[in-house]
Amino acid sequence: MPLIHDKEAWQSNLAALPLASYGAGETVFAEGTSTGRLLILKSGAVSIVKGGIEIATVAEPGAVFGELSALLGQPHGADVLAIEASEFHVADAAALLGQDPVALLYVTMVLARRLDAANRALVELKDQIEAGEPPSMIEKSVERIQGLLSAIGTGYMRAGVGYSMLPPT
User: Fold this and answer.
1) Are 92 and 37 in contact (CB under 8 A)?
2) 57 near 122, Cβ under 8 Å?
3) Closest CA to 93 of 35, 154, 135
4) 13 touches 91 (CB < 8 A)
5) How far apart are alpha carbons 132 and 56 in whole angstroms?
6) What is the pLDDT along the chain (169 residues), one digit of tens a residue?
């Protein structure tokens, strides 16, 4: 029996969290820093930059940022930069994930969907290589996998193609 995500409970929890706003060009998270915060996109759009290279843009409300840092006890793995005025629900990551099973289930489902999509993309890449696809097609698949594994939200945009990993409603 699959786990069911309670969207109404999650929305109620989000409404209780404080909000933070960032203007276009502002840094939301800096790669290598530790904030202990979990941010959930309410509105706006951000760019995910790792090692100076943009790997994704995220504009989907409900996208989660800081979850890997919180769960692994590591610094943030990428810069998150606002590319337009953006607003986030803000939570203490340890408190929210440690005390709220609805939040933990939401983040778990987001991560599971991202991993599943990356696994499927890896199989596609293997098939492309075996079929002798041109390097440009293989490069696009590699970029897609990088984005899936590095994206910090529930969905992301890369090369003009959107991939949604939201839990089903």
Assistant:
1) yes
2) no
3) 35
4) no
5) 27
6) 456 567 788 888 889 999 999 999 999 999 999 999 999 999 999 999 988 888 888 898 988 999 989 999 999 989 999 999 999 999 999 999 999 888 998 888 888 888 888 888 889 889 989 999 898 888 888 877 877 776 554 444 443 333 333 333 3
Which residue type sits at 87? Answer: E
The answer to whether the beta carbons of residues 28 and 13 sit under 8 Å apart is no
Q: Which of 113, 97, 154 is nearest to 3 (CA)?
A: 113
Amino acid at 139: E
pTM listed for this prediction? 0.78
Q: How far apart are CA 118 and CA 107, in angstroms?
A: 17
What is the distance between the alpha carbons of residues 13 and 28, in angstroms, rounded to a whole number? 22
**What CATH number belongs to 7-160?**
2.60.120.10
Q: Find the farthest-apart pair of alpha carbons in the chain and give their distance in angstroms, rounded.
A: 53
Domain map (residue ranges) of the chain: 7-160
